[in-house]
Amino acid sequence: xxxPKIEIIGTVAGELAYHADQIVGLLSVERTTLEHGEQFTGRxxxxxxxxxxxxxxxxxxxxQINPRVWxxxxxxxxxxxxxxxxxxxxxxxxxxxxRRFLTGNICPLLAPLHTFLPRIEPxxxxxxxxxxxxxxxxxYFRAYAAGWRLDLxxxxxxxxxxxKLYYLDDDIYxxxxxxxxxxxxxxxxxxxxxxxxxxxxxxxxxxxAGAAAQEGFSVLECLAVxxxxxxxxxxxxxxxxxxxxxxxxxxxxxxxxxxTARPVHPxxxxxxxxxxxxxxxxxxxxxxxxxxxxxxxxxxxxxxxxFLASRRIRGGVVIGDVVGYGPHPAQCVELLAESGFVCxxxxxxxxxxxxxxxxxxxxxxxxxxxxWVVEWSRPMLGAAHLGWLSALPLxxxxxxxxxxxxxxxxxxxxxxxxxxxxxxxNLDELKRRAVRFCFHxxxxxxGIYGRVRGRxxxxxxxxxxxxxxxxxxxxxxxxxxxxxxxxxxxxxxxIFDRKNESMxxxxxxxxxxxxxxxxxxxxxxxxxxxRLVTGL
Length: 536
Hints:
By secondary structure, the protein is of the alpha+beta class. The protein has three domains: about 100 residues; about 150 residues; about 250 residues, Metallo-dependent phosphatases (Purple Acid Phosphatase, chain A, domain 2, 4-Layer Sandwich), CATH 3.60.21. The chain has 18 helices and 22 strands. A hairpin with a 6-residue loop joins β17 and β18.
């Protein structure tokens, strides 16, 4: 039988690392059996030949129409990502007897993590384990930032003799999955690694957040990661405590780094220039105006503020999303900055204030229309506007009520939604915090989900005024000032009567024609104009 012919395509490092004779010699070694859970695992149809120093993987089931082109494309990606061992070499094998072309690669022998971690001394496991996972997270986020996803199974990563970590798997997946795979694998780690107690998991969560930040991910993306993590199932006991500690440390680390990285604080001279900022009024008066989701609709906001002034209501809270979707971002920021109302942050405010480099990676987390408006709006806002948006707090409130943009159970409080499938858990969270009322936005839908003793939790029919005294806990949305979605166009808002414990809901007319004209003249997406007009 004639020996196979080897054509070397290239190496990850770009320099020749192996010769064809070395590969042919290793192919003569008896094939190594692939077994799940053992040192060598892999896909069916892969032939593995192992020496004391090197490993050859040969794909026996390759179906590429043009294997040479496929190999070059694969190598191009690996050379960009630099997550594999630099000496990994791809080659094309031609068997003279059957004229088949097979693809394969050769690489130094590495110690896969699923067999290496159990061999670490128990006393050193936490320290070394956290350090290894930290490097793994950096490797994952570096690839993800470049548009590729790695399989985070421990058998897909290995250490060389110097302890440097590399990706072992030949499969790399393109596209953004919203960090679903990452959250799922963290759950696997927590469930399967008994040494991961709350203390070690907290260190791991902090390491993961640091890796994401160092690889250029924005706070929005990092908070999206934690949202995925909270949805992962883990059993009660050690695993549950570990996952909770991981998420808590991850979120705390993200918020801490973001606080120090904010571009401009609104009290700085740069921000004050061109933007008058009034001292926020207290929210302890009898009447508190509740505004949400202004969405850069200045005529609607102006109409609401004039209505409140006519009623001599000077205290209020704006529950996020001052900007986004609408054509007047600067005007709305300026009006609210000098209004004295307490303003908190929404997800559109967060996205708008991101530094340009962070926005480039965060944009994939938003819908097409939302991305378009952010990119249209950013040039319309100066450093003062962006600094004001960046420094908005996430919550406001008093002893028995809280205002936040998203949902109480959401660790980020700006992304989660209160709706039919989640209101029960959110009411439970209010009870746990000993808070009676939560004013929220984000849904753009007016309504109250309430808890009344002796009755099932449920949705309360909206009247012009609703007594809140009957509720032990209530989730209250006053609708949207700038973009309602309940089929009733207009500027929607509410007034909370603290003395009588009641909520009055309002929907008033405004100069919608001006907003529509400004949107159409600037080429806004038709769907956003239609939504404004129909209220749907």
